[in-house]
Amino acid sequence: MDWHAFSKHLSEQLNESVHINTAHSVMGGDIHQSYQIHTNQGNFFLKLNQPSLFPLFETEAHNLNAIYQSNSMRCPKLKGFGIFENNQAWLLMEYLSLTNKGDDFQRGRDLGYMHQQIHQTSQPFGWFENNYIGHTLQKNEWHFNWVDFYASQRLKPQLELAQLRGAQPAMFELGQQLIDTLPFWFQSYSPKASLLHGDLWGGNSSFAFENDDQTDSEPVIFDPACYYGDRETDIAMTELFGGFSQQFYAGYNSIYPLDSGYSQRKPLYNLYHVINHFNLFGGSYEQQAINIIQNLLKQSKT
Fold first, then answer.
1. Which stretch of DSSP H or E encloses residue 4?
2. Which residue in 13, 29, 204, 257 has the fewest CB atoms around it within 10 Å?
């Protein structure tokens, strides 16, 4: 990267003088190149990738803005995004110093406040554009009915992609049976359309601190895949791979108590992410998905 030329590009794109003093590579996931850049305007977190992946940056920028503007849970403040010299897509945001030390009760409370941001229009479930869950396109066509949304925009696309990825026919066939039984889990539960992170595992949440001793840290989330949907989907994913303490769930329930039927729907919601992990990484996620589907089908027949 020609940092001098990129400084000029940022100055033009952001309409303010930006001079990059230093830049060094940092950890930032398995998809993009990531840098901490030190500028005359402060420190920023920069993601880079090939121009064909610009849509990932564009939709992430929109997601970050939505969370930031909700004034509920902290996320990195967006600075800008674009394409540099036709060969480098970029996304620039506030740089946050992160630690795993923090108040998990507060993190749960903050997420509860974010989930209370409810979509109020006549088309409640979905998002104004499709976005991405990892590399995978995440469809977000507006639906009046949550069950229809979850079937057509979540489970069905992942099952179809799994077919293309060479999954056992049983995954698709059993998955189609499961879709037919979805109303079973919503006989006495009608979710509201909450603002969701969409990809809330432990690696996409941490605590930001301002001082060297890492005290007074604040919960933060990043790398979102936002849409308006059932808040239980976010909570379920926090349990899929771990990383959140019981204090987190106590904090959440102190603000926005979960429905008593959440535990029955949890595997249904995590199935989406397990199939997506098969589509991204293959391996044992295939059998894990089939086992979840089979167990859910058994429950629907009891």
1. helix 3-14
2. 257
The one-character DSSP state at 187 is: S
Residue 43 burial by Cβ neighbours in a 10 Å radius (0-12, 13-18, 19+): middle
How is residue 278 written in tokens? 């098969």
Whether the full predicted model's pTM is greater than 0.85, yes or no, is yes
172-226: pLDDT as tens digits = 999 999 999 999 999 999 999 999 999 999 999 999 998 766 668 999 999 999 9
Paired with 48 in beta bridges are 33, 90
SS3 state of residue 108: helix
Beta bridge partners of 208: 98, 218
192 φ/ψ sector (left φ>0, alpha ψ -120 to 50, else beta): beta
What is the C-alpha to C-alpha distance for residues 67 and 81, in angstroms, rounded to an integer? 17
Structure tokens at 220: 């933060």
Supply the residues annotated as catalytic. Answer: 199
User: H or E stretch including 92?
Assistant: strand 88-94
CA nearest neighbour of 249 among 178, 180, 200? 200
DSSP structure string for 242-264: ----HHHHHHHHHHSPPPTTHHH
User: Which H helix or E strand runs over 285?
Assistant: helix 285-300
Count CB neighbours of 267 within 10 A.
19
